[in-house]
Write a structure and sequence with these properties.
Number of strands: 0
Strand content: under 5%
Radius of gyration: 16 Å
Structural class: mainly alpha
Helix content: over 70%
Oligomer: single chain
Distance between the termini: 32 Å
Shape: globular
């Protein structure tokens, strides 16, 4: 089951990346980022409330592909816009080190403390609350305009 769920997530994420250039061309980044956070909150809420439901785990995997995949594509397109060509590598390094490095370390530590203190359900609910806060913060990303997502920004 785990392998099939993982494969489903990968296929859904690849499909999402295929349509993201069209989505980015038609939508402003603020609402898209907010949607990513909202879907992430739903994902964590589902894991808190129905962790043993196989149908719900299928939905959660697809939500991961959409929420994380869209967020990552948005972040790459935003970096492409905000950093000049010669600086794009530095922009991506900054994004990776802050989000996956520092953010991953802090998030993992907080999740461990929460899991030990309030249990799995409480940790997932706290994660959902943090995603909601991220969505509220993303509402402020309205002035950037539409993003171009072309071949260079996919690297």
């Amino acid at each position: 089951e785990i392998g099939a769920l993982w494969a489903l997530g990968v296929v859904a994420e690849v499909a999402l990346f295929a349509v993201m250039p069209n989505v980015l061309a038609k939508s402003a980044p603020g609402p898209l980022f907010t949607a990513c956070f909202a879907l992430t909150a739903l994902r964590w809420l589902a894991l808190a409330l129905l962790p043993a439901s196989l149908p719900m785990l299928v939905v959660v995997q697809v939500l991961h592909a959409i929420s994380f995949g869209a967020f990552h594509a948005l972040a790459m397109a935003l970096l492409h816009r905000l950093f000049a060509n010669a600086q794009q590598g530095r922009g991506q390094a900054l994004y990776s080190s802050l989000s996956f490095g520092a953010g991953g370390a802090l998030g993992s530590a907080a999740a461990g403390w929460l899991w030990a203190g309030v249990g799995a359900d409480g940790a997932w609910l706290a994660a959902a609350a943090m995603a909601v806060l991220g969505g509220v913060a993303a509402l402020g990303i309205g002035s950037v305009g539409r993003l171009r997502y072309d071949r260079e920004s996919r690297a």
